[in-house]
Amino acid sequence: MRATRGMRWAVWLVCVATLVACASGPVRRVSEPSARIQQLTVLADGSWTADLRIENFSSIPMRFDSFQFAMKIAEQDAGTLSAQPALTIGPESADVISVVVSPTVAAKLAVADGLAGRQGVQYSLDGTVTATPDEQRQREFKVKRSSALSPAPGLPGVLR
Question: 18 FRET partner, CA 20 to 30 A, in 33, 61, 125, 159?
């Protein structure tokens, strides 16, 4: 008789534990996004196209409403990257947005020197991303990134 009562308790505890585990659902974590320049292309008119990679590290989809970054190339102010893509990026995923930039003369020279010498150039982004996590309120995230771009072999005027 005792074994039966003990078995009932064990089955009851397993059922309660299963219900509690199912009730909580998947974890909905919102993490700060990241942004980096994936490719910089020098256009014939002297402007640039910056392919900006936006990364969503959250466990839920996020709609990226806008971004604005002050960009520096080789420590020179280069201009501003800004757009309002209203782009939804899935959980733990990324997408690329192209932005046309009218760079400063100093930044143009730094990129031209890097391309001519087949050398990389340092860049930094400093600004904000405004995003709306799935079914939540809009939030503003600060983003600061420093990295380098190198000439792409066989692609004149392209840095990656």
Answer: 61
Global confidence as pTM = 0.81
Q: What is the pLDDT along the chain (160 residues), one digit of tens a residue?
A: 555 776 776 676 666 666 555 556 677 889 999 999 999 999 999 999 999 999 999 999 999 999 999 999 999 999 999 999 999 999 999 999 999 999 999 999 999 999 999 999 999 999 999 999 987 899 999 999 999 999 999 999 999 9
Q: From CA 26, how far away is CA 113, in angstroms rounded?
A: 51
The single-letter DSSP state of residue 129 is E
Q: Element (H or E) spanning 148, and its range?
A: strand 139-149
